[in-house]
C-alpha cells in the first residue's frame, strides 16, 4: 500500500490521502461522542468530571505532538528520497521513543491529577473524573504508540490501513461502552457489567489497545521496500531521537500552551457552574468533528508536501499547500452552516438538561464563526509540519490564545461581568488571529529552505 506521492495530480493525491484519514478520524470522533452519550445517561456531573479530566489529560498531548510532528518530516522525507533503510530506522525510533516518553508522562500526571481537578469542581464531579481518568493514564503509552503507527502508514502514502483500523475499533467501542457502563444495557435490556464511568474508560483502552496491536502487526509483517524490525525497537538511536525532539519541539510547546490555555478557559467556564462545564464538554467533542476534514486534509497534504520536499520539488509542495488551504476553508464553512442550523438538535442528543442544551448550542454557534479563516491558515500550515519548520505553530498559538483570547476573557468576564456567551465568542477572535499569523509565515517562505535530512 506504499505510494510515491512525488508524481501525478497534486489534488488527487491530497484527496486520496485525506479522505481515508477523514473517515478514520471521524470514526475516532464517533467513539469520543459515544463515550459522552453513554456517560450523559449517568448524570451531568459525570460529563463534567470527564470533561475536566480530558482538558487536563490533553496537556500530555504536547509530548505526542513533538515526536509525532517530527516523525512526519523524518519518515515522509526519507521515503521521498527513496532511502528505505533510513525510513525504517525512523519508524522504529518513533514508536519506541514515544512509548518511553508516554510512560514517564503518565506517571508524572497521575501524581498531580486529583489536586488539579479539585481546582474546578466539587468532590462528586472530581470523583467521576478520577474514576475515568486513572485507567486512561495507565494506558497512555499504548495510545501514543497507536497514533505513531497510524502516522507512519500515512507518511508512506497508505491512508487506507489506518482508516480501516480506526473504523473497526470505533464500532467495537460502540458496543463495548454500554456493556461495561450499565448493569442493564439500554434499549436491549441485556445484562451489563455495571462499572459506571470506569466502564467507559475500560471500553476506550480496550479499543485503543486492539487498534495498536492490529496496526503494529501489519506494519512489522510487511513485505514492501520499507521493513522496520522489532529488534530495532529495543535500542535507541541518539541521532534520530534528537531529531524527534528538536524538529517537533515548537509544536509540542505550542500544544502545551494551547492546552494550558484550555485549562484557564475551563476556569472561566466553571464560574458559570457544572452545567456550563458539561456543555463545554459536549460541544467540545462535537467541535472535534469540525476539525476532522481539516486535520484529514492537512495530514494528507503533509505527506504529499513532505515527499515533494524530499524529492527536491518545492513548486509541487507549494501547490499542495495552497490547494489544502482552499479545501480547508470550504470544509469549515460547511460546519458553520450546520452549527447554526442544527446545533440545538445535536446537543439534545446527549442531554435533556435545558441549561446544558442552551449553553452548548451557543458554544457551537458563536465558537464556530472564525473557523472558515482558520481552515485556510491550517491548510497552508501543512507545509510547516512537512518541512520541519514548526516555529510558526508556536508563535501563532501563543499570540492568538494567550495574547488575544485570554485577554478578551479577562476584560469581558472579570472586568465587565459579561455572560458565558463571551467565552464562546473569544474562540472566534483567537482563530482569526492564529490564521493571519500562519498566513504571514507561509508567505515569508522560510519553510522552503528546511529539510529534516
Notes on the structure:
One of its GO terms (molecular function) is antiporter activity. This is Multidrug-efflux transporter. Pfam families: MatE. One of its GO terms (cellular component) is plasma membrane. InterPro entries: MATE_fam, MATE_MdtK, MdtK-like. With about 450 residues, the chain is an all-alpha fold. The chain has one domain (about 10-450). It has 17 helices and two strands. A two-stranded antiparallel ribbon has the order 1-2. Helix 10 packs parallel to helix 16 (about 390-415). The longest helix is centred in the middle third of the chain and has 37 residues, at about 275-310. The mean pLDDT is about 90.
Number of helices in the DSSP assignment: 17
- Give the C-alpha Rg: 21 Å
Terminal CA distance reads 24 Å
Provide the low-confidence segments as ranges: none
Decide which structural class fits the backbone: mainly alpha
* Helix/strand order, N-terminal first: HHHHHHHEEHHHHHHHHHH
Strand order of the largest sheet: 1-2
> Per the principal axes of the C-alpha atoms, what is the gross shape?
globular
Query: Which range best describes the helical content: under 10%, 10-25%, 25-40%, 40-55%, 55-70% or over 70%?
Result: over 70%
How much of the residues is beta strand, in percent?
A: under 5%
Quaternary structure annotation:
single chain
Q: Mean pLDDT, nearest integer?
A: 91
Any idea how many domains? 1
The tally of strands reads: 2
Largest sheet: 2 strands, antiparallel
Amino acid at each position: 500500500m506504499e505510494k510515491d506521492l512525488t508524481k501525478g495530480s497534486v489534488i488527487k493525491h491530497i484527496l486520496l490521502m485525506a479522505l481515508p484519514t477523514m473517515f478514520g478520524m471521524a470514526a475516532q470522533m464517533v467513539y469520543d461522542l459515544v463515550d459522552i452519550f453513554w456517560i450523559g445517561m449517568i448524570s451531568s456531573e459525570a460529563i463534567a468530571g470527564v470533561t475536566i479530566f480530558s482538558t487536563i489529560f490533553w496537556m500530555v498531548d504536547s509530548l505526542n505532538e513533538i515526536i509525532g510532528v517530527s516523525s512526519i518530516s523524518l519518515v515522509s522525507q526519507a521515503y521521498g528520497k527513496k532511502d528505505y533503510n533510513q525510513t525504517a530506522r525512523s519508524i522504529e525510533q518513533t514508536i519506541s521513543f514515544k512509548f518511553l516518553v508516554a510512560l514517564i508522562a503518565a506517571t508524572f500526571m497521575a501524581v498531580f491529577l486529583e489536586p488539579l481537578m479539585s481546582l474546578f469542581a466539587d468532590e462528586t464531579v472530581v470523583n467521576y473524573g478520577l474514576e475515568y481518568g486513572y485507567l486512561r493514564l495507565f494506558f497512555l503509552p499504548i495510545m501514543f504508540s497507536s497514533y505513531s503507527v497510524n502516522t507512519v502508514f500515512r507518511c508512506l502514502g497508505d491512508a487506507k490501513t489506518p482508516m480501516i483500523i480506526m473504523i473497526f475499533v470505533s464500532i467495537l467501542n460502540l458496543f463495548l461502552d454500554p456493556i461495561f457502563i450499565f448493569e442493564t444495557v439500554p434499549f436491549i435490556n441485556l445484562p451489563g457489567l455495571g462499572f459506571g464511568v470506569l466502564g467507559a474508560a475500560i471500553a476506550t483502552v480496550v479499543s485503543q489497545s486492539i487498534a495498536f496491536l492490529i496496526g503494529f502487526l501489519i506494519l512489522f509483517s510487511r513485505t514492501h521496500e520499507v521493513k522496520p524490525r522489532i529488534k530495532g525497537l529495543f535500542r535507541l538511536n541518539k541521532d534520530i531521537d534528537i531529531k524527534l525532539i528538536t524538529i517537533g519541539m515548537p509544536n509540542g510547546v505550542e500544544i502545551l500552551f494551547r492546552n494550558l490555555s484550555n485549562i484557564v478557559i475551563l476556569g472561566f467556564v466553571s464560574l458559570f457552574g457544572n452545567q456550563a462545564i458539561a456543555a463545554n464538554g459536549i460541544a467540545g467533542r462535537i467541535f472535534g468533528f469540525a476539525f476532522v476534514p481539516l486535520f484529514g486534509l492537512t495530514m494528507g497534504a503533509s505527506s504529499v508536501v513532505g515527499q515533494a520536499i524530499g524529492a527536491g520539488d518545492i513548486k509541487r509542495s507549494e501547490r499542495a499547500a495552497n490547494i489544502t488551504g482552499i479545501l480547508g476553508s470550504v470544509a469549515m464553512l460547511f460546519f458553520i452552516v450546520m452549527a447554526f442550523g442544527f446545533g440545538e438538535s445535536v446537543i439534545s442528543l446527549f442531554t435533556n438538561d435545558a441549561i446544558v442544551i442552551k449553553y452548548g448550542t451557543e458554544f457551537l454557534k458563536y465558537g464556530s464563526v472564525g473557523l472558515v479563516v482558520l481552515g485556510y491558515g491550517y491548510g497552508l500550515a501543512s507545509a510547516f509540519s512537512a518541512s520541519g519548520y514548526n516555529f510558526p505553530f508556536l508563535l501563532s498559538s501563543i499570540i492568538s490564545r494567550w495574547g488575544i483570547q485570554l485577554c478578551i476573557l479577562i476584560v469581558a468576564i472579570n472586568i465587565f461581568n459579561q455572560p458565558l456567551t463571551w467565552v464562546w465568542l473569544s474562540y472566534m477572535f483567537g482563530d482569526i488571529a492564529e490564521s493571519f499569523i500562519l498566513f504571514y509565515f507561509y508567505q515569508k517562505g522560510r519553510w522552503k529552505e528546511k529539510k529534516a535530512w
